[in-house]
Design goal:
The protein is an alpha+beta fold. Helix content is 11%, strand content 24%. It has one domain. It has one helix spanning 33-40, and strands at residues 3-6, 10-14, 20-24, 59-62.
Length: 75
């Protein structure tokens, strides 16, 4: 994963190839969003993560803590 976009009612995870996965039912206002962002390795501000943007715009967070490509194949 390279980016996580958070809306009011959904989350979109985007990988390095630009492919995305949309998860409905969890959004910026849900308390579990901090756990999800932490597990993804995203860089976020815990004091503003629950703020929603006008017009259902998406908050975008960069994933800064991730294993390098092929890490699981190294013996």
């Amino acid at each position: 994963m390279r980016r996580v976009r958070v809306g009011a009612t959904h989350v979109i995870a985007i990988d390095i190839n630009g492919d995305s996965l949309r998860i409905d039912g969890i959004g910026a206002e849900d308390p579990e969003i901090t756990d999800l962002l932490k597990l993804a390795g995203a860089s976020y501000n815990p004091t503003t993560v629950h703020d929603t943007l006008p017009n259902d715009d998406l908050q975008e967070y960069e994933v800064v803590r991730a294993d390098p490509w092929g890490h699981d194949r190294v013996l």
